Amino acid sequence: MARTVQLTVASERTAALLEELDELEPHTLRVHRGASLRPPGDLVSLEVSNERLGQVMRVADRHGLGEANGIALSTAEPLSLVSHGYTALSREEGGTTWEELELAMSQDSTMTGDRLVVMLIAGAIAGLGIVSGTVHVVVGAMIIAPGFQPFARLVLGIVNRSRTWAGGLQDVISAYGAVVLGSAVVAVASSMLGHSALDSGGESYLGADQLVAYWSTTTWVGIAVGAIAAVCGGLLLAINRTVLTAGVMVALALVPTAALVPMALIARDPGLAGRAGLRFLIEVGLVVLGSALVFGFKRHQDRRSMAE
User: SS3 of 206, please?
Assistant: First the structure.
């Protein structure tokens, strides 16, 4: 889909900016003289294809994007844009800029009170799935947990040498701390009801020990799946398809392994907790590495750096 781009520029610099933007052959190009009060200046708006969006950003960079007395910019996706190039637009590939990617991940990964509650619930549901031996319940926990974006936000900050990584690290700790707490509550409740912290003793299509064994064992197949899923997650974020990372979380074992660690400790099995923790750390490493490879490649292609 095309992008609507609005730029606020000082009036004396508008002519030079318009000349460069016109060379990109945007679908539309408009200027509103003196329309902006804060920051003061002219408002330039245009619609461009995703393919041209990077070129617009480079033009804005040359005119001081984000700097004092420079250009202020915002982007949006129009619901429709009917023009002579409509057919080509309807088959456009997805894409995003570094600035859009950073903002989108900040919005999706910042652990607000509501998101922490969701992660807490995800941990509790994962714990219930483990003690009852019901894998579909654990999968449900993996889907609802917004657990990929905090890691990606951390990696993006490192790759682009921006301050984004600090917020990502804080959100990773908060998010998975909530998962651990949720599963710990389930383990304690199971123990108080006279069962094992890892097995409720009820009948199920899988034994709880089978799920415990699966998520506490590290195999080359599990590593391969995690590595591929991590790269896929980075690509989905890079093409602005954040919502599809729920599927990536199913392929990764971040939530069940994080949930299993406190449950094993409450069951007085430190060896099991160590094995589950090791697999969790391996999954984290795969996510960090896979995302870094994607973002590094995209950054090299774009040859732009995010504003510090």
Answer: coil
